[in-house]
Amino acid sequence: MTIETSTVSKPSRVADVDEAISSEELQLAARNHGLPLEALRFDITPPGLHYLLTHYDIPVVDPKAFRLVVDGLVDTPLSLDIDAVFDRPRVSKVVTMECAGNGRARLLPRPVSQPWLVEAVGTAEWTGTPLAPLLRDAGVAGDAVDVVFTGADHGIERGVEQNYQRSLSVPDAMRDDVLLVYEMNGAQLPPQHGYPLRLLVPGWYGMASVKWLTRISAVAEPFEGYQMRAYRVRQATEDPGVPLTLIEPRALLVPPGFPDYMSRARILHAGPNTVEGRAWSGWAPVSAVDVSIDGGETWAPARLEPAPHRWGWSRWTWTWEAHVGSYLLSARARDGSGRSQPVDQPWNRGGYANNLVQQVPVAVIT
Question: What residue numbers bound the domain in which 137 lies?
């Protein structure tokens, strides 16, 4: 249903020139958090440092009352308690997850929403059971087109009351690597990350991995729920846009040296320094990372380590003989599909899939 009240957020808009972050955006930024960039040093991100985006309230789910319902166009509807999910074959995968809006706050003009800079990412070891065998057990009908995933989180977005829902096409839902997850880094899934059960779609932006999963429904038509319409790359309101799916290539560097408290400006002592970071892509494995100290005017190749897991990030390093002065460090990734990070901003109205190269000002002192 659609609700009209003075407290409901207005349709998405673009900030005016020089418009400051609003109290509403600040409130979102306090509820949701990004990865502290120094935590890129961890191969596996600790749960409390992994990026977090929660659209509505974090549901409190009683595991004793929990049921996962599989219905719609299936031969055998299912209703599984959490123990029945635990009893199914168990698989673990290391997956890098990134928010589709990562980088939004760096755009000009700025789309008004959760004000991510570049930190909306994390890599975890997720444990659960493959989705495809469960769908086969239920017997998805031949005329099913999409599989709809419903979470327990409930709220209003742009005037629409809803549970968070996303869909995958039947072929995408039947991918071997799509999981129903109940553990993160070897421990029970934290409440903020979807306890007791969530979807995991490796390689896709995080909006696809529905948290607090309660229902899986096979349907005969392409699902056009709110979250499917919202997560599209469009240049104007009336533009139908392109759906978001796979993560664009990105490299991030660990800010070198040490920070100023308020500005986070970096200070580094002169001499040989190792610049390091991580790179990933949902389209294909990362094939190269380049580093620049002059804001992207010139580039040098970094040493790229092979990713130990297909859907996890790669570590890269670069040795820098730093001399006294001011620098603007950047890193850019290329992947095996031919995609690479742009130096100029890839603007769109929602601020999605913005993989503009990172820029880190550094002052080198004696």
Answer: 23-230
